[in-house]
Amino acid sequence: MRTRLTDLAVRKLPLSENGQVTYWDELTPNFGVRCSTRSKSYIVLLGEKRRRKTLGRYPDLSLADARKQAKQLLAANALEGDALFLSQFAPVSFTEAKARFLEDSRRRNKPRTFKDYKRLLDRHFNFSGDLQTVERKQIMKVISELSATPSEQSHAFVAIRTMMNWCVRHGLIAHSVVPPLKQKAAERNRVLTDDELGQVYRRSSDSSQILATCCSQRQPILRNHSQHMHGIRPVLTRDWMMWGRTRCTTLGVCLQQSTLRLVPQFM
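The structure assignment produced for this chain is given below.
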């Protein structure tokens, strides 16, 4: 039975006619008053096995002192449990863990991915001591110092978070100290006008023009808009490029490099 234990409430709790009845406190978890046929006692449950410990009898022990003892025992038990849990992991240095991760990445990932991970981790993350002693504030300090180079900052964050998650999966640490990545991409509010699209289109080759017009993620434009074709050169119109709020164009997918260099000057 749960109730809000106060001095007045404890005094009014009835003794049990048969056996024992426990009243659990709504404010302090696992703390309560056990009423028997002859007395009232403060108790607390500890650990996963919910081991019961008697703190003292009422009124010899006040409610405030009993609650204080309960909180101290619960806190000590939690720390003991954490220490026991962490002791299951064999100590490994951060340097060794990084070397293991990179070796696994070299075997599983593409050469470019492995090269990027190695560069970022070796350049920015060289903590001394055991892997378990690395704290979030140490990692975020490194990340914060890269704020002048947002791209490098983002890639470094991904690299250390990938490594720490790998360490969790391979039983080197209990949990990752790196927080989840939260990035909000800025919505584009500038698109190419018809005239600008026309300039890019006219500078491309015939094959690129056909590909740019046909390689839409929607239904092929040539099939549905044949009325806009003049010879082999399709004509781009605004209604082809509008789907919802965003004007969608596939020019960037297949145009030659010489043509793609024209696009940034309009953005």
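Interim note for the steering committee: The CA atoms of residues 10 and 33 lie 8 Å apart. The chain has a mean pLDDT of 75.
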